[in-house]
Amino acid sequence: xxxxxxxxxxxxxxxxxxxxxxxxxxxxxxxxxxxxxxxxxxxxxxxxxxxxxxxxxxxxxxxxxxxxxxxxxxxxxxxxxxxxxxxxxxxxxxxxxxxxxxxxxxxxxxxxxxxxxxxxxxxxxxxxxxxxxxxxxxxxxxxxxxxxxxxxxxxxxxxxxxxxxxxxxxxxxxxxxxxxxxxxxxxxxxxxxxxxxxxxxxxxxxxxxxxxxxxxxxxxx
Length: 221
Description:
Strand content: 5-15%
Radius of gyration: 22 Å
Structural class: alpha/beta
CATH superfamily of the largest domain: Resolvase, N-terminal catalytic domain
Number of strands: 4
Distance between the termini: 56 Å
Order of helices and strands: EHEHEHEHHHH
CATH class of the largest domain: Alpha Beta
CATH architecture of the largest domain: 3-Layer(aba) Sandwich
């Protein structure tokens, strides 16, 4: 539990660092101290449990109250893809918590969220709308490309036996794993991590990635 005392009626600053190392980037820690962060949450990611950080961060935001400020280095700390970042922003919006991104600030810049809360609320809402638009646009383009790819693959497939892992795989579980890999690739998740999550060999995932790239190239020609 955070249980931090408000400073003169103002919210508290909670710094969140997502890292794979026990020792976080000292530059970020020093910046947190410079701007008066009240507590630092260090979330060391366990490669064997990649979902862990999402639970830690969600709990951190859930325990914050109105006008508290979550401080992170960049949007990458909020999630691995646009959907995850949007989910965190929705929670931030519901809690009316501030969000401060160090990567968008210039050295020596005065950044006073607390005394410009209404402006911050508007900017926060606008950023959330932009993120939603990006996700919808990406999903729409993906659906169009997928529909074209299906038509293309049907034309190319003929009567041959479908591959083990493809959108035409005979086994429903194989098809499910294929689409899990496609979604993970779309979210730019590393091949090694996809292999661990889905349970397929990295060579298989590389093959699927190469096939998708060829399909996309053929559709664009």
